């Protein structure tokens, strides 16, 4: 055998060994991946998440993202947990109105309190933003930050939602918890970026999502440093400080995180600018929107599935069209999720 | 030997072994600790830091703090780096005025720009807060967040301070870098909580202090989400959003972190409320103030060392008295620090 042929034969053996190793790797990866996101059906949505993670963690690829820049942001209401028929925080506010009513006999005669106290659903359904602001000011302010968090904690430990009869913190979407875990296992820092109250969500974010308070960005009211009986406290004032919704979301992300997300998850027009801001960065970016098209297991609402517009979580037709044209992934709760809640198989 | 005496003798042997083990432990700890904070002289200040860390990390002690609650906050100007005779960010602003002057011929006739452009130190020394606001609005706004950060980066890479002829980022205090590292090695999450510009400090916080942008809390101006040539951007507006100084520091800490620090470091009345807020929590807390009493190696200023009040970093006599009465530790740069800068042995 001349040297030339010997090299060729050895090369052949080498190639065969490499091919076998490669096949083994692919097999192992495929197996490993069938165990990630177990509550997701196979399909474009699950594939988008897995492909994105493989891309940004592959050190040899052009889309590699160093761990310190792996930021993922999640809207909360309607994206991580149920927001229908009313946000949990709104339910908390209504419960507080009932609780505080004996100290405010004048509320019986004045809207928006009157409607709440008489359980006048028709009027409540028509509450304007400013009606809600009046309710929030009356129920969320005038106390220290610590007193407020204690109230939220107590309410969450007892209040149950009207349809599933579960604690609100049980109404989180199991598939989204798996996405949070999966991203975190791949070096991502996961943030909640919510239009809801920052101090409200921080009470349970660690316990429910494994997300610490400092990784919750949300709307806030003014707090004021004061001395109460000589002790420094932070008092919650009945005045809006920051609205973390719509164009406020990229502003909030820049303010609190100072980095552009590589992955962003939402479900409504409140998340539109966050997804646009995410996509405008270089390299691989993942933009996803949860579509509520499963009235049997959860809820179905919004123009994007041919239903009338609702006040909560508007997935408008325009947003749906933008998602299609920009290549954002729409998650169908009905088709993409094997299971919705941990409490229900 | 009766059983009673046997037990006593065994007990005695046991106690002796335990005492020996204890002595060994103490010896090992002492040795280990002589290698921590190498730029600190032995004394009350170094001891306060080391004792605090031992206390909060001792799982069997009553002062144990779980890692997720180990939060330490550091003021920047005058606490982590030189602030005299002017903050680095003010030097940046003045340099920007010179740079932008050709586009603003009217500045030659108008204060506060005129004084800056003619290098009229006497007038500049008397600049009011509103003079500085005019300068900040002219130099820090009207551009995207990314353009601003690029300007800061370029300036920091070139500008040198007038006394030491070093890049500003070299003017950090080596002993404080060691405290940051030491706390971090003991599970602390370290934050900068500065009256200076949040977006300014975030440019170099990772590189200089090992503190990522999301752990920098500071003052900020309004940013606005806009589309520039169809691309979403955040524009910096000439309008104050949040002042992270004095009573604003505990407010900022609650807003950005949502947890009360266990250790807080400052050097002026701007840090007073942060230290009070820190101390008002339960369990072991560490409050420290850097005193600028070393004109030879750094600077000496402030009423607390018998000098006139200065605009930057006021360590007032009242603050000094409060520190004494509340048991806060005052760090004497002169006595407690073996070395001040890394660039100078």
Explain this structure.
The first copy, chain A, is built from 14 helices and seven strands. With 345 residues, chain A is of the alpha/beta class. Chain A has a seven-stranded mixed sheet, with helices on both faces. The longest helix of chain A is centred in the first third of the chain and has 32 residues, at 3-34. The model of chain A is unreliable at 22-32 (pLDDT under 50). At the A-B interface, β3, β4, α11 and α12 of A face β3, β4, α11 and α12 of B.
How do you describe this structure in short?
The structure is a homodimer of 345-residue chains. In chain A, 43% of the residues lie in helices and 15% in strands. The first copy, chain A, is built from 14 helices and seven strands.
Structure characteristics:
about 350 residues, 14 helices, globular, homodimer, 7 strands, 7-stranded mixed β-sheet
Task: Set down the secondary structure blueprint.
The structure is a homodimer of 345-residue chains.
Chain A: H1 3-34, H2 44-57, E1 71-74, H3 88-100, H4 113-117, H5 121-125, H6 129-140, H7 145-158, H8 174-185, E2 189-197, H9 198-201, H10 205-209, E3 216-228, E4 231-242, H11 248-256, E5 263-266, H12 272-279, E6 286-291, H13 317-326, E7 329-332, H14 333-336
Parallel strand pairs in A: 1-2, 1-5, 2-3, 5-6, 6-7
Antiparallel strand pairs in A: 3-4
Helix pairs in contact in A: 3-6, 11-12
């Amino acid at each position: 055998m001349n040297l030339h042929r010997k090299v060729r034969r050895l090369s052949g053996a080498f190639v065969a060994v490499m091919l076998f190793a490669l096949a083994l790797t692919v097999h192992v990866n495929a197996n490993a991946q069938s165990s990630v996101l177990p509550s997701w059906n196979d399909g474009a949505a699950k594939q988008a998440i897995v492909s994105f993670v493989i891309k940004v963690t592959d050190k040899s690829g052009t889309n590699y993202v160093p761990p310190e820049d792996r930021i993922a942001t999640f809207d909360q209401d309607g994206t991580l947990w149920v927001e229908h028929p009313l946000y949990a925080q709104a339910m908390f506010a209504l419960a507080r109105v009932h609780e505080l009513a004996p100290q405010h006999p004048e509320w019986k005669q004045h809207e928006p309190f009157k409607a709440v106290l008489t359980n006048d659903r028709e009027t409540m359904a028509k509450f304007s933003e400013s009606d809600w602001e009046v309710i929030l000011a009356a129920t969320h302010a005038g106390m220290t930050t610590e007193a407020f968090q204690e109230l939220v904690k107590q309410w969450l430990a007892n209040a149950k939602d009207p349809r599933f009869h579960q604690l609100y913190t049980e109404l989180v979407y199991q598939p989204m918890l798996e996405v949070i875990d999966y991203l975190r296992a791949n070096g991502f820092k996961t943030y909640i970026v919510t239009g809801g109250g920052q101090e409200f969500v921080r009470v349970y974010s660690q316990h429910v999502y494994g997300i610490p308070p400092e990784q919750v960005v949300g709307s806030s009211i003014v707090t004021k440093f004061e001395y109460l009986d000589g002790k420094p406290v932070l008092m919650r004032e009945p005045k809006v400080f920051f609205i973390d919704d719509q164009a406020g979301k990229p502003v909030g992300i820049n303010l609190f995180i100072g980095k552009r997300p590589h992955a962003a998850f939402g479900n409504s027009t409140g998340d539109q600018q966050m997804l646009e801001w995410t996509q405008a960065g270089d390299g691989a970016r993942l933009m996803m929107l949860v579509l509520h098209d499963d009235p049997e297991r959860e809820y179905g609402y919004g123009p994007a599935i041919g239903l009338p517009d609702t006040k909560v979580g508007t997935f408008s037709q325009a947003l749906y069209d933008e998602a299609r044209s920009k290549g954002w992934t729409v998650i169908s709760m009905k088709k993409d999720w094997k299971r919705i809640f941990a409490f229900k198989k």
